[in-house]
Predict the structure.
Amino acid sequence: MGLLQVDSQTVTSAVASVILTGIDDDSVYMCVVSNASNNSGNYQLRMRVANGSTQDSANEYDYSYKLLRTDTTFDNGAVTNANNFAASTTSTGTTSVQNYIFYFYNWYSETEFSFWTNEEVTFDSNSRLVGATGGGVFTQAERHDSVRFFTGNSVSAEYDTTQGTFTLYKVT
């Protein structure tokens, strides 16, 4: 297995979102998010499928996860019919950051649902180290050529992402 870098963005000051483009076939794609955070409050990194800069905010995101926590044992979670994928909540502290590895499948297919798996390591808003593993599906068969990341706390409120490196690779 090899990796071919397709797109990368490093955030060093406030941006509304990060859009990674360049998905151009049915290959598996991997996305690495390193040290993502915000200075707006206790919010979550969120993800949506997209075409260019146009994201899909339909209530078609279903996902589940196992969350391992340093303060307790674990949590299980599942979300259906959301309008985005939402990660753990971080705060404005300098050590409250999120790190992810996503794998994207069927992103470019017009006849299959787009789905992903994810691994997360985060210092959350309560200064806990958490690790999560899970996956999800966008339940509309349509082609996507990009992915959008943003910070939010509800279905309508979006805040600036203030740091992080977001890199998209094609798995070869």
In short: The CA atoms of residues 43 and 153 lie 5 Å apart. The longest strand covers residues 129-141. DSSP finds no helices and 14 strands in the chain.
